[in-house]
Predict the 3D structure of the following.
Amino acid sequence: MTIAPHTPTTTAVPTQSTYQNRVAEYWNAEENPVNLELGKIDDLYHHHYGVGQADRSVLGEPDPDRRRARVTAELHRLEHAQAELLAAHLGPLSPTDRVFDAGCGRGGGSVVAHLRYGCHADGVTISAKQAEFAGAQARKRGIDDKVRYHHRNMLDTGFPSGAFAASWNNESTMYVELDLLFAEHARLLRRGGRYVVITGCYNDTYGQASREVSLINAHYICDIHPRSAYFRALARNRLVPVHVEDLTEAAIPYWELRKEADHLVTGIEDTFLTAYRNGSFQYLLIAADRV
């Protein structure tokens, strides 16, 4: 497969609504240490949460500065484990394949996919600041010939139809309408291509969104979807689930550790833990094939 050359896009206003402009403004202004300090460890900046068992011995470190460093490194390890888990469901991919990172944040997921498969990657974010930051990181690594970032709307990317072997959203679906999003993924993916999403969703067997879910929405200016909405929208857009995994229990250790990280807390940690434990909120991975 020949990869057509393409230039990173920095269009001035890739948004479609007042709400999306608000989201762009939020992420252009965001300088949260829990996103920035973790990424400084290895220049992999993730904008998502972690999974797996946490090494809680880091909390017992008596030296305050070393404790902060060890807690930060452990949270980053859990975040990176989540990124690797998602990437593992994209394959098999070859170095000639092209993948699409929808809502790429500061770009860590695209780099993980490239390092794992050697593939070309295009990341899209509604935040001009994030696109610029991620592009600088790719140049710093010397991979900007294969990993590119674009200031575009993931609902209307402008990329050619059928150009991608795989695509994903990592905790970014709660900012858009699912049917519009999955229609764009289905358009971009070649037949048999793989789509993967990791997301928080509310458990609609409980009825409407819980108080905790509403607080998370307010904190991140987002609109968390019910679990069932994902499967209905996937089906309507030629995306057939082949693997579904409930990561809720695997996510709890990350939040328990983050709650103890005084230098990184954002005030939403207890809300996430309560929502996970009372069953009203779930952390889900879905891998689907484009038919």
